[in-house]
Design brief:
Blueprint (H helix, E strand, L loop, with lengths): L11 E5 L3 H10 L5 E5 L3 H10 L15 E4 L10 E4 L3 H14 L4 E4 L12 H8 L5 E5 L4 H4 L5 E6 L3 H10 L5 E6 L2 H23 L4 H21 L10 H12 L4 H10 L4 H8 L5 H14 L5 H11 L4 H9 L9
Parallel strand pairs: 1-2, 1-4, 2-3, 4-5, 5-6, 7-8
Antiparallel strand pairs: 6-7
Length: 338
């Protein structure tokens, strides 16, 4: 039996990252796993999870199963059959390298949405580089942690080149309120999840400026076209961007009050400085640092990306938000499919 046809069956999982999505995953998988270890860095959070079965900082409404245990030790992940990376994209490489030094043969899943600065690597590319032999998958989609923690209907897509792993993960992530689909297009899945964060900032800015529904709908529609154009240039498949990790995540992130990136954009549109806007949400908004890496990727790929360019100019060139969005509307006329 080849490695790609190896059957998988999971009874234990380590989730690295005890933020909102990591905690939501621990809640979601509670009924399906015999052993769940949630690994974080905050001793107070870990103590509250272990004594009260709730994360006091993130999605505190989620009552975690009694067998969910919090830990501060990365080594506690090593003996699990499945390891999910739910750390910020900027910490993925260092966390992976630290885990590799400990050693693990577990199947790995990335849930982070972003691209690494300077290298332009997706998170699965980092994990594959650090763990060349481990089975590997990604999970993405319109998946707000707050709604998962409230058992609200949610769909996601699981990407892997290993069919057996994808099928096993699909079975694991199937619950009455959580449905998953599978795909082999890992680049497209990850690129959609990363790029849409920039458009959520743009939509938030437009809302903060009071531009109205017409303008925001046009912005998000053109964002889908731009995301697809860039995503294909970077290795994704066109159809993936019309799926859950593309347009699905784009819609949820651009219009939801749960979206950190939308909230940062809203604050910017209302006149706050970037540092103030980021501080106001109290959590990491991946779209802010990833605007740098994705802007650079678009330049290297020679892809026309006016919305990404506009957000970049607002965040990192001190361009007034109102002027940057005005410039988008005053670009030369062109066919819609351009």
């Amino acid at each position: 039996m080849s490695a790609d046809s190896k059957p998988f069956s999971f009874s234990s999982v380590a989730i690295i990252g005890s933020g909102s999505f990591g905690t939501a995953l621990a809640f979601l998988l509670g009924p399906k796993m015999a052993k769940i270890t949630l690994i974080g860095r905050d001793a107070h959070v870990a103590e509250k999870i272990n004594t009260h079965h709730r994360n006091p900082r993130y999605v505190s409404e989620a009552q975690l199963a009694d067998h969910v245990r919090a830990s501060l030790e990365l080594a506690d992940a090593a003996d699990h059959e499945l390891i999910i990376f739910s750390v910020p994209t900027s910490a993925t490489r260092s966390t992976a390298e630290a885990l590799a030094a400990i050693g693990t043969s577990a199947a790995l899943v990335s849930s982070a949405k972003g691209m690494e600065r300077n290298t332009g690597d997706r998170m699965s590319q980092i994990l594959r580089e650090v763990f060349p032999r481990n089975p590997l998958a990604v999970i993405s989609g319109p998946n707000h942690a707050e709604e998962i923690a409230n058992t609200m209907a949610t769909c996601a897509v699981i990407g892997s080149h290993n069919h057996e792993l994808a099928t096993a993960l699909q079975k694991l992530f199937t619950l009455p309120h959580f449905r998953t689909y599978t795909s082999t297009d890992m680049p497209g899945i990850e690129l959609g999840g990363a790029i849409k964060n920039i458009y959520a900032i743009a939509a938030g800015i437009a809302s903060g400026l009071g531009l109205g529904d017409n303008a925001i709908a046009a912005l998000v529609t053109r964002a889908l076209s731009e995301m697809t154009r860039l995503g294909i240039a970077l290795g994704g498949q066109r159809e993936t961007f019309t799926g859950l990790s593309g347009i699905g995540d784009l819609i949820a992130t651009c219009f939801s009050h749960h979206s950190r990136n939308h909230r940062v954009g809203l604050a910017l549109g209302q006149g706050k400085a970037l540092d103030e806007a980021v501080a106001s949400i109290g959590m990491i908004a991946e779209g802010v640092p990833n605007t740098l890496s994705i802007y650079e990727a678009a330049r290297q790929a020679a892809v026309n990306s006016p919305i990404i360019d506009a957000v970049y100019s607002i965040l990192y060139q001190n361009r007034p938000a109102a002027l940057a969005l005005r410039d988008l509307l005053s670009r030369d006329p062109r066919p819609e499919n351009d």
